[in-house]
Amino acid sequence: MATPASPTKINTQFSAQDADITIQSSDGVLFKLHRQNLGTNTGGFPGMEISTQEEIVHLPEPAKVLEIVFQFVYPKKHPKLKGLDFGTILEVSEAVEKYEVFAAMNICEIRLHEFPPDRAANVFVHAIKHEYPELINKTAVLFCRYPALDLIKGLGLPAHCIIPWLQYQAAWQEIFDNVTQYIERLKADTQCTFATLKKGNSIHNICGICRMSLLCHVARLSRIETLSSLNEALESPRLLVDKIDKYSWCDSCTSTTATCGVYAPIIRNTLQAAVAAIPPFTHFLKVNTAGRPK
Ligand SMILES: [Zn+2]
Ligand SMILES: [Zn+2]
Known about the structure:
Structural class: alpha/beta
Shape: rod-shaped
Largest sheet: 4 strands, mixed
Strand order of the largest sheet: 1-3-2-4
Order of helices and strands: EEEHEHHHHHHHEEEHHHHHH
Organism: Gymnopilus junonius (Spectacular rustgill mushroom)
Bound molecules: zinc ion
Radius of gyration: 28 Å
Protein name: BTB domain-containing protein
Strand content: 5-15%
């Protein structure tokens, strides 16, 4: 571990003459505080019961984070945490949970809800650690299709979440498997034929080329990582289908008005309904931890 930088300055906001505790940030800034405030307004800082004498308490957070956190410990108007970069919001939120700075918890949660898409996974892990179900579900759905290993290893997903996460991802995979099976079950013919019978029933036979195109389309949809991109692709399925280089619609489907394009809205509606029916991630967490000894 690096040795802390030597103290060079005292934070101007926290430099009271009658302070009875000195805290040093990881980057060497001193904060002069009152133990009584720390003791009554937080759950994780030394309160009156601990004598700190002349010692300096070293904390691993940088001054820019501590300066924000300590503002919530004093009886004055608290900061709204607006205009901060998201990395700082995350650091402050983490410190607030660690030191149990109760007055800051709600505003941190509000700010975390404003996460940029590329930080969804970080917010997810934070929300899991500190049990913020709304944040957990709001972020989980955004990267539910990411490779599981990246999340588990790269972000350090807590052990009790690994099985629920794999089940959550399996639920997502299943909806694509179901659509694939629907396409596989379409009646085979040498060419695509469509006919509507008197009773409103219809005949849909599909040729090998068109079936391959549809399967290719679903395979592509299943590889889309984010929910917003998936929704976009579902709303304009031909965009994807047209991009398939190797496969395309057969002659009978490109020359007539009745084409295998009819399957696109069926696939879209089926997938959208299935996506909407997937329980939120906290459901999988609950199911798995229900019988777990505490
Ligand atoms: Zn065909
Ligand atoms: Zn066709």
